[in-house]
Amino acid sequence: MFDIIIIGSGPAGMTAAIYARRASLDALVLEKDAMGSGQIAVTEQVDNYPGLPRIGGYELGEKFREHAEELGASFSENEVAALTKTDGIFTVFMKDGTSVTGKSVIYAAGTSYRRLEIPGSQLLGVSYCATCDGAFYQNKTVAVVGGGDTALEDALYLSRMAKQVYLVHRRDAFRANASLQKQVAQTGNIVPVLCAVPTEIVGEKHVEALKLLHNDKPEDLQLDGVFVAIGSVPNTELLRGIAALDASGYVVAGEDGVTSVSGLFAAGDVRTKLLRQVVTAVADGANCVASAEKYLLH
Q1: Residue 123 has what DSSP assignment?
Q2: Per-domain residue ranges for the chain?
């Protein structure tokens, strides 16, 4: 039996593993993907993590993992199917039929990309990861759908290889930070398309065009690929009916990570909070271990 079972191996989960081992607690990290480090692994560059400016997302994730491994954290590649608590003990059931038990659980399963639910969204050429698929669009025309930090970061990344990048946003102004907006404005092959709502992706097998309602008028953009960056949804279905979730599905928990279930803590992007960044995820991981230590002493 483990002192702490950590579900998720992104920045929050890795930090929890580091702090757990420093507290001499027996911790197991359950990760869905082998050697995974969460969505940070597909982030081209992280500019706002203190002390490590302009570090690659994959590199930063690897540093987190190496630190946890050096301290002796245990890892298991397995997708979690269910979680129960009986007589004060948590049992985590895996999809391969195995299970593990623990005295406490830190849930740090992160979020998934929000899907663009319009006709044609399943065509080849629709992507949710610019750094994964951008190289296929050298000297081609693409669109990025979204108006937040991720969307503008994706547009800037794609502008270095694509011939033209349409940046499609439903509102009349982007929501991204001022620095990103300035960079986009200074990039000649990024074309903002504001007050535009995608209605259909057109193509026989591969993307050929994106249909929009632009200022309430129909418009077609002829292009080769569509990159979607319209936000995320929390990976909390596992906790539905177990722990309190808010209207958007995030785990109700404060900075201490304490949830409605004693011994269950939430860290990272899955919990209710104003800012979802790497720096707040690692803070959550540390705070959850501090809360778990207090719980385990009772």
Answers
A1: S
A2: 2-113+232-297, 126-228
Which of 26, 133, 195, 256 is flagged as catalytic?
Answer: 133
> How deeply is 66 buried, as exposed, middle or buried, from its count of CB atoms within 10 A (0-12, 13-18, 19+)?
exposed
pTM confidence score: 0.83
195 is catalytic: no
| CATH code 3.50.50.60 for 126-228 | yes
2-113+232-297 CATH: 3.50.50.60
What tens digit of pLDDT does each residue of 101-125 get?
Answer: 999 999 999 998 899 999 999 999 9
Whether 288 sits among the annotated catalytic residues: the reply is no
Residue 51 CB-half CA count within 13 A: 2
133 is catalytic: yes
In this predicted structure, the answer to whether residue 255 has a pLDDT above a threshold of 90 is: yes
Active-site residue identified among 47, 96, 132, 220: 132
CA atoms within 13 A on the CB side of 220: 9
